[in-house]
Write a structure and sequence with these properties.
With 245 residues, the protein is of the alpha/beta class. Helix content is 44%, strand content 12%.
Length: 245
């Protein structure tokens, strides 16, 4: 969808931090449904079709959206890189950026995913080993409910035509383009539930790491939930790693 928005992106300032007043505006509005608003963001247009690990959120939040635009604007205005590379670097900078990425890496290491991949830490997935990672969301473009990050609570995905269309159709098509041997890691119960439905319908064939808590700092139950599920998560990662070998 970049072609539809690049002229507006080129008008954004690159001399200061971008704000919601810059990005959550009508030029970037994709669709609106009641209290839901979906806006364009440039980082999920890049798809790594060689991914070994696929981490799935529910939808990009404001932190990711801001980082994606700032990265894209900075690289695009230099006019030194092709668009494909800019989108790739934008994805690299924005995916699960902020404290969420640190929480996520720690939890993945605790699941021994780094051992299954033969790397020192899952932090390498976001740097040196980025070539084997694909990050995405059920709803690939940022969605806000009454101006705040959509969390999957209100409305539920199944109760929204907009959210259902992206989650059950667009997302399924994206995952179908990825290797069948890759490991899907859904973040949180709502993402887990949708992916489970898609697997039951035969629209997703990859192995999934079930019951992985959402790593957001806003999820106050994540540590307790993770500790409850930890042994099972390690077992699932080990099983996948042995199949991969």
């Amino acid at each position: 969808m970049l072609d539809q928005y690049v002229e507006f992106i080129e008008q954004l300032p690159d001399s200061r931090e971008l704000k919601k007043e810059d990005l959550l505006t009508s030029p970037f509005l994709i669709e609106k449904e009641n209290n839901l608003e979906m806006y364009y963001s440039p980082h999920n247009d890049y798809i790594n079709e060689n991914a070994v690990i696929v981490i799935v959120g529910i939808t990009p939040g404001w932190t990711q959206t801001k980082k994606a635009f700032e990265t894209f604007v900075s690289l695009h205005k230099k006019r030194e890189l092709p668009i494909h590379t800019i989108l790739k670097e934008t994805k690299k900078a924005a995916s699960f950026s902020g404290s969420m990425r640190s929480n996520l890496i720690h939890m993945l290491d605790e699941c021994h995913l780094h051992s299954a991949l033969g790397i020192p830490s899952c932090s390498y997935l976001f740097e040196e080993k980025r070539s084997i990672l694909h990050t995405t969301s059920l709803v690939k473009y940022p969605v806000f409910y009454k101006g705040k990050n959509y969390t999957g609570h209100q409305p539920k995905i199944a109760n929204s035509d907009l959210l259902s269309r992206y989650s059950y159709h667009s997302f399924a098509e994206e995952i179908h383009s990825l290797p069948s041997t890759s490991l899907l890691i859904p973040l949180g119960k709502r993402v887990d539930a949708v992916i489970n439905e898609l697997k039951q319908k035969g629209k997703i064939t990859q192995n999934c790491l079930k019951g992985f808590p959402h790593p957001s700092g806003a999820n106050g139950h994540r540590i307790r939930e993770f500790n409850i599920r930890k042994d099972q998560l390690i077992s699932e990662v080990t099983h996948w790693g042995n199949m991969k070998v």
